[in-house]
């Protein structure tokens, strides 16, 4: 097979945060005349060896062990690598920076040729701690937010009919946070306890239960309102760790995981979250937002919360709902307009819809470069790993097998 220009590896073929980002960039590269192949990350080792790409592109190089292993494997084979940052709104805390930057990269070595950050703020933050990365860390802007400048939003009526909820006129959207990492049974717990102090972890666990209490009260007391509960794609432990356990029994609840977050926000009258950059997405769609932070807003977090009011209790949240449907305004939302403008600039850098073009042009620059890496003999160390994954996707009921076979090329097209 002829060597292709770019191989993109992602977790899903259905609309999701990383999938939307990757598709924007891959389509731009195709428009510019480059040969691009998109594949399942769980078939990644096979795909790299089959296609022998000039460049590997992954939206998140450190978000999971397999992501990092593929980046390292491709790099040591002499393949150019470009990675983005899926969750690029780092806290202004230099002590927590290594966890955000390195993730599953326990080598603490940036194997990719270029890693693109959301903003100049986060680039400067990284270089203040790791100045040796200056040539590899670049700024693209937050690509995921380009979506709102390009893709027409879904019609509310059609969306609700598709889910057999067409009889509702009022819709409130809830972007669930992923509380799973604070559960001992989750594979990320070991890393979590290294990042957060025990009292902070205990607070998140308490907030999960209180958030659930508030949401259930709202659902029960507003039968004429449909609550669309959008689970976080990274949640591994179901409704309980999404803080929505028990809500599934109510008729005025629609729980979604694979549905596009853009569509979920677009059909909502306003958007509720515990902590989420989806608030920015909601602002770009002209939607008002609010938080439910039962024990307050003063926990380790990025700065998105500054642009949206917080209602701690079911009573405060109910008052906000009543006020919104009477006046079309959430209490204190207008007063935070200037804060929202600052947050948008600090986090996504540009809101012109061209961040995917900036990434595409960086990839093109690398493709046109005459500087090729020298293949490393260290790649031999990855042969057992490669074989392990090649076998894993063929073992029925294995995690990798299920993920790989859920990746639908027709759906992607």
Question: How does this structure look, described?
Answer:
Helices cover 41% and strands 12% of the residues. It is of the alpha/beta class and 413 residues long. The strands form two sheets. It has a six-stranded parallel sheet, sandwiched between helices. The chain has a five-stranded parallel sheet with strand order 9-8-7-10-11. Helix 1 (17-31) crosses helix 15. 42% of the residues are buried.
Write a brief structural summary:
The protein is an alpha/beta fold. The protein has helices at 17-31, 44-51, 65-76, 97-102, 120-129, 147-150, 156-162, 189-195, 198-221, 238-241, 261-266, 278-284, 314-327, 337-348, 355-368, 383-392, 399-405, 409-412; strands at residues 6-10, 36-40, 55-58, 80-83, 114-117, 137-139, 170-175, 225-230, 253-256, 270-273, 288-291. It contains 18 helices and eleven strands.
Question: Which secondary structure elements does this structure contain, and how are they paired or packed?
Answer:
Layout: E1 6-10, H1 17-31, E2 36-40, H2 44-51, E3 55-58, H3 65-76, E4 80-83, H4 97-102, E5 114-117, H5 120-129, E6 137-139, H6 147-150, H7 156-162, E7 170-175, H8 189-195, H9 198-221, E8 225-230, H10 238-241, E9 253-256, H11 261-266, E10 270-273, H12 278-284, E11 288-291, H13 314-327, H14 337-348, H15 355-368, H16 383-392, H17 399-405, H18 409-412
Parallel strand pairs: 1-2, 1-3, 3-4, 4-5, 5-6, 7-8, 7-10, 8-9, 10-11
Helix pairs in contact: 1-15
């Amino acid at each position: 097979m002829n060597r292709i220009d770019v191989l993109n590896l992602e977790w899903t073929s259905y609309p999701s945060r990383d999938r939307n980002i990757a598709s924007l960039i891959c389509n731009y590269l195709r428009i510019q005349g480059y040969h691009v192949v998109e594949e399942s990350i769980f078939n990644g080792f096979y795909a790299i060896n089959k296609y022998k790409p000039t460049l590997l592109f992954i939206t998140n190089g450190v978000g999971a062990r397999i992501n990092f292993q593929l980046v390292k494997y491709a790099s040591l084979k002499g393949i150019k690598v470009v990675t983005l940052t899926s969750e690029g709104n780092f806290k202004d805390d230099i002590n927590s920076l290594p966890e955000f930057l390195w993730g599953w990269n326990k080598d603490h070595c940036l194997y990719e040729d270029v890693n693109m950050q959301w903003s100049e703020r986060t680039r400067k933050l990284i270089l203040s701690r790791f100045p040796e990365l200056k040539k590899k860390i670049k700024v693209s802007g937050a690509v995921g937010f380009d979506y709102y400048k390009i893709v027409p939003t879904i019609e509310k009526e059609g969306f609700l009919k598709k889910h057999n909820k067409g009889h509702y006129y009022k819709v409130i959207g809830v972007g669930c946070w992923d509380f799973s990492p604070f559960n001992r049974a989750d594979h990320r717990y070991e890393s979590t306890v290294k990042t957060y102090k025990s009292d902070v972890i205990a607070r998140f666990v308490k907030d999960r239960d209180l958030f659930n209490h508030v949401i259930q009260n709202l659902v029960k007391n507003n039968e004429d309102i449909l609550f669309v509960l959008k689970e976080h794609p990274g949640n591994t432990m179901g409704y309980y760790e999404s803080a929505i356990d028990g809500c599934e029994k109510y008729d005025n609840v629609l729980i979604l995981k694979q549905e596009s977050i853009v569509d979920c926000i677009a059909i909502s009258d306003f958007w509720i979250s515990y902590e989420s950059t989806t608030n920015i997405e909601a602002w770009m769609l002209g939607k008002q937002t609010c938080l439910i932070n039962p024990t307050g807003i003063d926990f380790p977090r990025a700065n998105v919360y500054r642009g949206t009011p917080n209602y701690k209790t079911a009573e405060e949240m109910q008052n906000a709902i009543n006020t919104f449907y009477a006046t079309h305004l959430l209490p204190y939302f207008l007063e935070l307009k200037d804060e929202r403008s600052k947050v948008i600039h600090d986090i996504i850098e540009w809101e012109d819809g061209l961040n995917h073009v900036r990434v595409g042009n960086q990839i093109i620059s690398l493709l046109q470069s005459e500087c090729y890496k020298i293949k490393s003999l260290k790649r031999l160390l990855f042969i057992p790993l490669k074989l392990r994954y090649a076998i894993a996707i063929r073992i029925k009921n294995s995690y990798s097998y299920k993920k790989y076979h859920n990746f639908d090329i027709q759906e992607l097209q």
